[in-house]
Amino acid sequence: MTGVHINRVLKEMRGRGLITLHRQTLVVKAWDELIRASEFDGKYLHLQKRALG
């Protein structure tokens, strides 16, 4: 990925209110919408919930 491409994607996400950038920190403001917009499917990560305690 090029810097130009990344900047365009970040600009689009900021414009849609999905993220903010503040002092070199990216803050996700709308996780559910970001997941839908990116068509993310975390099943391939094989995450398991752990019991607390």
Structure description:
- This protein has 53 residues and is of the alpha+beta class.
- The protein has one domain.
- The protein is 40% helix and 15% strand.
- The chain has helices at residues 3-15, 31-38, and strands at residues 19-22, 25-28.
- It has a two-stranded antiparallel ribbon.
- A hairpin with a 2-residue loop joins strand 1 (19-22) and strand 2 (25-28).
- The longest helix is centred in the N-terminal third of the chain and has 13 residues, at 3-15.
- The mean pLDDT is 87.
Which helices and strands occur, and which strands form pairs?
Layout: H1 3-15, E1 19-22, E2 25-28, H2 31-38
Antiparallel strand pairs: 1-2
Quick overview:
With 53 residues, the protein is an alpha+beta fold. The chain is built from two helices and two strands; from the N terminus they run H-E-E-H.
Keywords summarizing the entry:
single chain, 53 residues, alpha+beta, two-stranded antiparallel sheet, 2 strands
Helix content: 25-40%
State the major sheet: 2 strands, antiparallel
The main sheet orders its strands as 1-2
Low-confidence stretches: none
Whole-angstrom Rg? 14 Å
The DSSP helix count reads 2
Provide the domain count: 1
- What form results from the Cα inertia axes? extended
Number of strands: 2
Structural class: alpha+beta
Mean pLDDT: 87
Order of helices and strands: HEEH
How much strand content do the residues show? 15-25%
Distance between the termini: 42 Å
